[in-house]
Amino acid sequence: MMSRPCPIVFDLDGTLIDSAPDIHACVSAVLRQHHITPLPLPRVRSFIGGGVELLWSRIIAACSIDPVHRPALIAAFMARYHDATALTRMFPSVIEVLGRLADAGHPMGICTNKPMGPTLQVLDHFGLSHLFPVVVGGDTLPQKKPDPAPLRLALERLGTVDGNALFVGDSAFDAHCATAVPVPFLLYSGGYRLSPVAELPHDGVFDHFDALPDLVAETLMARPRSA
Ligand SMILES: O=C(O)COP(=O)(O)O
Asked: Is 147 a catalytic residue?
């Protein structure tokens, strides 16, 4: 009996989309409002991946801001972040490759630390919503990646059987989350990763989305499959 194509869950920021310029623009606007000199884009990009709260913990530390301002800063940021898509781009070939994987029958989902509001907005903006029947955001559960709970929820909602699924992401948050579930992890090396590839647990690595369908097939072939 042929087994059905396995579910594939994707991280969002730094994996499918380069959203750092929009996040940087929102952060800079909020800092300017508070008369604080904005940080350079690469610095803000290095703070992305652990969700909004961790992003702001890092900004507050980097700019030596009094933590008493934290709630106001985060509220002002969220008001801008909700529909910030103007500077965001999909990584090359993402739309074509997602279409190929969907046509091959893989059920697909998103597991991101980005809050649900901006996540749904950006998926809609890029015409990706219909590809992802399951979306777990950074505020869906109390836990965020690298805790396994959000990815486990996405896999459960996609009907994963016996861990027969794949997770695709770009960061240490994603790699350690996949290990904790556990589920095989494919690392996109062109995203916001801070650690060397060799230091992140992974079952495959790719630097361009054109390589992903073959990598998916190879990874699944190398593993025992459930019916
Ligand atoms: O909001 C973030 O920090 C990044 O979210 P991600 O999980 O899609 O990389």
From this structure: no
CA–centroid distance, residue 108 to ligand 1 (Å): 18
pLDDT in tens, 5-17: 999 999 999 999 9
Domain 8-18+89-221 CATH assignment equals 2.60.120.260:
no
Domain range list for the chain: 8-18+89-221, 20-81
Query: What's the whole-model pTM score?
Result: 0.96
Alpha helices by DSSP H, listed for the chain, are 20-33, 41-45, 52-62, 70-81, 94-103, 116-125, 149-157, 172-180, 212-221
**Architecture of domain 20-81 in this structure:** Orthogonal Bundle (1.10)
Q: Is the ipTM of this complex over 0.95?
A: yes
What is the 168 CA–ligand 1 centroid distance (Å)? 13
